[in-house]
Design a protein that fits this description.
The complex is a heterodimer of chains A (194) and B (88).
Chain A: H1 9-23, H2 29-42, H3 45-57, H4 59-67, H5 69-75, E1 86-91, E2 96-101, H6 110-113, H7 118-121, H8 123-131, H9 133-139, E3 149-154, E4 159-164, H10 176-180, H11 185-189
Parallel strand pairs in A: 1-4, 2-3
Chain B: E1 9-12, E2 31-42, H1 44-47, E3 54-63, H2 64-68, E4 74-80, E5 84-86
Antiparallel strand pairs in B: 1-2, 1-5, 2-3, 3-4
The chains are: A alpha/beta (194), B mainly beta (88).
Chain lengths: 194, 88
């Protein structure tokens, strides 16, 4: 972590919370370090992007992803990161656009999308995504036709969502790693086309 | 057997519980349609008190018109069985 974080009030609050957990015997320093290490070294939108690219290339994988997200994540080696929740992939089509939000807090499949952006945790996004998603998407530069149906998935429970964006044009001629490079974190949240 | 199935019309309970809940306020009192039975998970309202009570959880689709009185989108929430009542 950078030096500036140490100066933030929230850093002091987190340190005090850690000390209380350790003093109460609920966690050890080593356990906390292990979790943070895993989050910061392996959690990345590159993982979700690889799943999307595979689904674009392989119809069988696409079907498995839409039926059982956890198994599809495990197939590419992300099973451990996607443990502890029900992973559900929602597919964008020419008629339907999906986006994800957690109105109650900031639930999100970190292992596959990377640490969540600050706007995802903001009151503005969390309240407006369910109320006026079309206006929110327009602010992200995503103008959808009026005929596109928008579905907003509120991750208020043990389900975590990943958006399967619209298949890139020319996907047949591209290899999987080039396709994965087209997919962004916002695409996986549903605030970008891909 | 679960109380509801895909296609069931349900209404989120309007009551404001005393303690913790994962039923967002914006959905309370509103009607929607079950699109899928998710799984059975511990009810957060009880788990927070140390009581392990497992209940079916349903993915419920609400229209924007129902939730807000306007809009053409829909919002899907996962709701525990005791958050819901039948909406004939």
């Amino acid at each position: 972590m950078s030096g500036e974080h140490d100066e933030l009030p929230v850093a002091a609050r987190v340190r005090r919370l850690e000390e209380r957990l350790i003093a109460a015997g609920l966690a050890t320093d080593a356990e906390l370090d292990d979790i943070l290490e895993r989050v910061f070294t392996s959690a990345s939108p590159v993982n979700g992007a690889r799943m999307v690219a595979r689904a674009w290339k392989d119809a069988g994988y696409r079907d498995r992803l839409l039926t059982d997200g956890n198994a599809a994540a495990a197939e590419l080696g992300f099973g451990a990161g996607a443990r502890g929740y029900l992973l559900t992939a929602v597919e964008n089509t020419s008629a339907v656009h999906n986006m994800i939000v957690c109105t109650l807090c900031s639930c999100y499949p970190t292992a596959l999308l990377g640490p969540s952006p600050s706007w995802y945790k903001s009151f503005a996004y969390r309240s407006r995504a369910v109320r006026e998603p079309r206006a929110v998407l327009a602010e992200f530069g995503l103008e959808l036709p009026d005929t596109t149906e928008i579905r907003v998935w509120d991750a208020n429970s043990e389900t975590r969502y990943l958006v399967l964006p619209l298949r890139a044009e020319g996907a047949d001629e591209m290899d999987e790693s080039d396709l994965a490079a087209l997919v962004t974190r916002n695409g996986l949240i549903g605030t970008a086309v891909r | 057997m679960t109380k509801f199935a895909a296609g069931s019309r349900v209404r989120a309970r309007a009551a404001d519980p005393d303690g913790h809940t994962r039923l967002p306020r914006y959905a309370r009192g509103h009607a929607g349609e079950v699109i899928e039975v998710r799984a059975s998970w511990q009810l957060p309202d009880e788990a927070v008190r140390g009581v392990a009570r497992t209940e079916p959880v349903y993915a419920v689709r609400f229209t924007a018109a129902e939730l807000w009185g306007s809009g053409s989108h829909s919002v899907i929430l996962d709701l525990w069985e005791s958050y819901l009542e039948e909406a004939p």
